[in-house]
Q: What sequence folds into this?
């Protein structure tokens, strides 16, 4: 490839990254113009007087490190600013860091003179169009216009199908549009082109989580652990069914000297996902007080019990899951086929020549004299009658889980009576609960009291596996540590009849 085109390709990628962060400065400015300096009660990540929190979007939070061009945050939801309800429901519920965006972006600047490197006018026009599409897609994502972002990103990939950064941008556009199967495909394509593409790795894990494939999501996070910030990986891990492991990773940043309000809120959310509400409240209270803290706790009570596998990720992105028609076939990544080994022709082996071999003739044995056996009566056996086996119902012993400190929470109900009805319904509906004993514990959250229904006493891998089976059957659950859970009163021996 000529040196001029190689340099132009490198600058194209740099401009794609830089346009990404530039779009968030535009969105942030529009948001500030619409709402001014955030008034008390509108910043959901901290109390009045703190800096505006990072965006709810995991890739757009802007709390990574880099040069001045990369320090913008993407808080604008639309060009007209945040709506009232959207501000309350979405502002900094939580966010993942922007390391997936900023790694590799560098501090290079790009200007109109870059296009002069192209060797011909046609190449310059193509590069200019690519730059415009990148900018349009980024702005559409920052403004939460998912369909528009997909349109621009698909055009971009059609122009440069072998650019991993552009395919990563397409994956995030699909995520923003709520098209999770296409997002997983596009992110996988980007990683096939460049396994060190952090934004694609994080988006792939989020898409797999939204599709209910927690095992694949955790495997993705483990595979690309080296290219993801621990805090990013931690929150994604918490969403993928391992909230305690995620809290450990987020805590490394939240407790450090550079810990931010966003990191602390992410840590609090991971603890809430793990059922450790007292610790979650204590961490959240560092930046929130009074009504704001109570509102956050109520929001998280709803968040940790999604009705579908995609609901949590969709809430994270400020979007809704939609029917996905799939990525256009024209954008499918064409991977070079490995050259098949060519067999070397060999001269045919000479046909074996049959050589007659004289057969050995056995010597004739002398004829033996004929003898008769003694006379015996022939006894006709009578077939024995086979007894027909009768199926005897066997008593099925309840499965005894391995002793552990992890529980699978099935719901939070008004009282034990409501929880019992919910258990009977769940036991009939989900085969995974067969033979298990229900547990429960009363909990106080803010002004309200709840009865948490669970099954447990598992090691963590067993608890995660059970929750995944329940989700695969359409159930709702999450894994947490023991929090005072005891065998439910109605499930104790001797109380069955009294409870009827």
A:
């Amino acid at each position: 490839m000529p040196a001029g085109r190689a340099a132009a390709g490198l600058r194209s990628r740099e401009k794609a990254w830089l346009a990404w962060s530039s779009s968030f400065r535009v969105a942030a400015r529009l948001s500030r113009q619409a709402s001014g300096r955030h008034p008390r009660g509108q910043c959901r990540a901290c109390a009045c007087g703190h800096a505006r929190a990072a965006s709810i979007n995991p890739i757009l939070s802007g709390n990574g490190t880099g040069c001045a061009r990369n320090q913008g945050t993407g808080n604008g939801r639309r060009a007209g600013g945040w709506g009232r309800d959207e501000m309350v429901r979405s502002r900094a519920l939580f966010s993942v860091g922007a390391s997936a965006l900023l790694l590799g972006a560098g501090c290079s600047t790009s200007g109109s003179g870059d296009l002069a490197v192209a060797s011909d006018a046609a190449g310059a026009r193509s590069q200019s169009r690519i730059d415009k599409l990148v900018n349009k897609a980024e702005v559409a994502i920052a403004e939460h216009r998912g369909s528009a972002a997909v349109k621009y990103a698909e055009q971009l990939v059609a122009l440069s199908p072998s650019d991993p950064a552009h395919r990563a941008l397409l994956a995030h556009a699909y995520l923003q549009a709520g098209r999770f199967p296409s997002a997983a495909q596009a992110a996988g394509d980007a990683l096939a082109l460049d396994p060190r593409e952090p934004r694609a790795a994080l988006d792939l894990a989020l898409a797999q989580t939204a599709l209910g494939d927690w095992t694949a999501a955790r495997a993705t996070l483990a595979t690309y652990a080296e290219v993801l910030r621990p805090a990013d990986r931690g929150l994604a891990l918490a969403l993928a069914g391992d909230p305690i492991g995620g809290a450990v990773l987020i805590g490394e940043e939240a407790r450090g000297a550079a810990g931010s309000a966003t990191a602390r809120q992410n840590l609090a959310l991971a603890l809430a996902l793990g059922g450790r509400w007292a610790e979650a409240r204590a961490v959240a209270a560092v930046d929130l007080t009074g009504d704001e803290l109570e509102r956050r706790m109520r929001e998280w009570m709803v968040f940790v019990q999604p009705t579908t596998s995609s609901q949590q990720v969709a809430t994270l992105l400020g979007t809704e899951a939609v029917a996905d028609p799939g990525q256009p076939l024209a954008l499918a990544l064409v991977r070079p086929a490995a050259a098949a080994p060519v067999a070397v022709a060999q001269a045919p082996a000479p046909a074996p020549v049959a050589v007659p071999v004289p057969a050995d003739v056995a010597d004739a044995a002398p004829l033996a004299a004929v003898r008769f056996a003694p006379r015996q009566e022939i006894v006709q056996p009578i077939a024995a009658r086979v007894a027909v086996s009768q199926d005897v119902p066997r008593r099925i012993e309840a499965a005894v889980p391995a002793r552990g400190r992890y529980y699978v929470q099935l719901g939070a109900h008004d009282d034990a009576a409501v929880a019992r009805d919910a258990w009977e319904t769940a036991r009939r509906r989900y085969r995974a609960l067969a033979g298990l004993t229900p547990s429960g514990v009363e909990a106080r959250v803010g002004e309200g009291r709840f009865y948490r229904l669970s099954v447990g006493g598992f090691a963590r891998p067993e608890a995660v596996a059970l929750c995944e089976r329940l989700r695969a059957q359409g159930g709702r659950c999450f894994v947490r540590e023991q929090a005072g859970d005891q065998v439910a009163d109605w499930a104790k021996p001797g109380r069955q009849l009294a409870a009827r």
Notes: The mean pLDDT is 70. The CA atoms of residues 381 and 387 lie 18 Å apart.
